[in-house]
Amino acid sequence: MFTMHRYWSAAFAAVLLTACGSDSTTSTVNTSTAHGTLVENPPLRIASLNAASLAAQLSANASGAQLLQLTGAPACGVDFYYIKFWTVGGSGETTQSSGALMVPTGAAPTCSGSRPIVLYAHGTQSDKTVNIADPTNTSNSEGILVAAMYAAQGYIVVAPNYAGYDISTLGYHPFLDAAQQSGEMMDTLTAARMALPQTMSSATSDSGKLFITGYSEGGHVAMATLRAMEAAGQTVTASAPESGPYALEAFGDAIFFGSVDIGSTEFSPLLTTSYQHAYGNIYKATSDIYSATYATGIDTLLPSATPIDTLFATGKLPETALFDSTTPVVTVPGNPTLSAVLTGALAVPSDPTNPDTPLFDLGFGSPYLINNDYRVSYALDAASNPDGAVPTPAAGVPLAAVAPTQTLRLAFYKNDMRNGNWAPASPTLLCGGDQDPTVFFSVNTETMAAFWSGLPAGLITVLDVNATPAGPFAQIQAAFQQAGAAQLAFYMSAAGGSLSLAQAEELLIEGYHASVEPFCALGARTFFSQF
Amino acid sequence: MTKFTLRALTAAFLTLTASLAFADEDPDNTFRLGAYAVFFHTSAGYLAGPYIPPGENLSATVKNVQTPYLAYLRKLSTHFTFELAFGVPPLTKAYGKGPATLAGTVPFNGQQLLTSRWLAPTALLEYVFFDDSHALRPYIGAGVNYSMFYDRNITSAGEAIIGGPTRVELSNSVGPAVTGGLTYRLPKHWSLMASYSWARVTSHLHAITTDIVRTDAISFGPTTFVAAVGYSF
What we know:
The structure holds two protein chains of two kinds. Chain A has 17 helices and 13 strands. By secondary structure, chain A is an alpha/beta fold. Among the domains of chain A are: about 25-235, 3-Layer(aba) Sandwich (Rossmann fold); about 250-395, no CATH class. Chain A has a nine-stranded mixed β-sheet, with helices on both faces. Chain A has a two-stranded antiparallel sheet with strand order 1-2. Chain A has a two-stranded parallel sheet with strand order 10-11. In chain A, helix 7 (about 250-255) runs antiparallel to helix 13 (about 405-415). Chain B contains two helices and 17 strands. An eight-stranded antiparallel β-barrel of chain B has the order 1-4-5-10-11-13-14-17. Chain B is mainly β. Chain B is elongated.
């Protein structure tokens, strides 16, 4: 018996001795929830593409091939990292957010070593699930764009997905909330700078040069971030906000007075929900703003994992009818003149000399999104506290209204880049297209350019990609216009559906806002390359 | 003619084994020590989960290993024996199977992705032919294999493929096992044996990088060849 025990002991000892050791572990998880804290370090590398693979991936479809023509052949490979970090929501909530750190790689001297950072803010997404760090998702077009435009040309790209998207459990998106979004951009940058030395691409490091850019919503975010970083004493080398709603109060006034932009039925719920969380006074009930058809659940509708077209098709949102086609009759007690002016101003646009009239008319219908009472309350405030840029730009500097009182208009004012009389201290390019039906160029970009017209020469540069080609961006302007002409010709060809000129132009204008984006990105890269 | 030949051969075989038998009766307990040669017959699905490049079909294969064999046998009757067999847990290495590189950059096919030790005790009930008077006794058996993976470590090549430091989990497996072999009794309680066995091992792999989980279902049908010396007491 003793002998048997001895053998068993030896056998188990042999087994147990070999069992010593431990499994490998994943990244270190930082337990702090302070804003700007990188959650996992090193972060996940989603993909590592060399220059040839990136070029091949882009060439695999027509839009990618067009983009490649614009960006030029990738000089570098790109490593795509998925970063998660802590930030603060619109009403001060601690929340996790995520984003991309794209690192150039490769043997070329511009692809490793000390490289500049592009801090990028993406445009509005209705899709809650999109992850800008994921090049394996073909619908992540903006992530692919910035990878090809910047990272593949030697820039480190840092870009948030924004709170309310991807892994964020915030429950809403702080849309056009300048304080929150600029803070989140800075948190993304802090987290990305913590991550970079720990990545598998640590041969590439931060040179200290920082460029800020973004498109559409991201144009506003980029400008707000520039303002916030300058206020915090942080150096920004240069910036390029693109097609953003900077003069937000003026833009809101233009829309409420009938110049309804494409996409407004998507933007409205995002805006009111965002500002309700930030300021708490936009509505007591969503039915204060929204028609009974859409009021229920609209405060949690966007962003959504459900495609926007499905939301339209299932009656969750109207596709274009922001306002009631039966327009209100405004009665201002004791002021029949103002009553008549406002009633006329809120009517369905009918000016046959304005080429945008058919477009604006799409914003009226039934069922509609925003009820007339709310529209009238907004218009009355605009009449009492007029914006300097809308409806007609005032002579000189187009200032925002001093003291709006209607709560949504006040929220616009608070997030209007004219508010506070701030001006960039570093070179800034404002890029856009003057026919933009989504974010009006004249109301936003030109208003800001006029607002800053007194700044030293060279500090503010405006690039209208639709203007007559001239100056340092002439090639970009010419390329944009050639692309538009080619697209128009395609729509009118048999392959494109043999559309009439009017139909083709309508399609072109519907896609105009998106079509400007890569050209403005190239403009931004050209601009940054000077520094 | 055929029947006669078979009978003659059988008689000759019994005579031979009987002549090699020793007079003393087999003790009830036997301890064996030898060598396992493990031939993995791996079939793994494609790695699935977030951020797997579409169409890349990433799979893995495992290289064969050799390891010491330990076993305890308890004689239940003249013809039935219970065996509890262990292999000293071998370091098992998984290699990438699929495209040469991912996205033209990260080497994949043939790269060593992860290592793991594999503790796989097997309990077998064996039927032993002939009786104790025969020195050479063939046997067959069936039972249960329990497999547990530990010391799971992803390599730097594996990290590059999967995106960073990764914790690997491989679920334990319970599956059938069968065996067949021969024992040859030597003087003084010693014996020699050789066997060929098969087991079914099914495990689910979870590769956790940050909090991103990728999965794969791995099936082994490992066959093992064992040569060992036994001591009975």
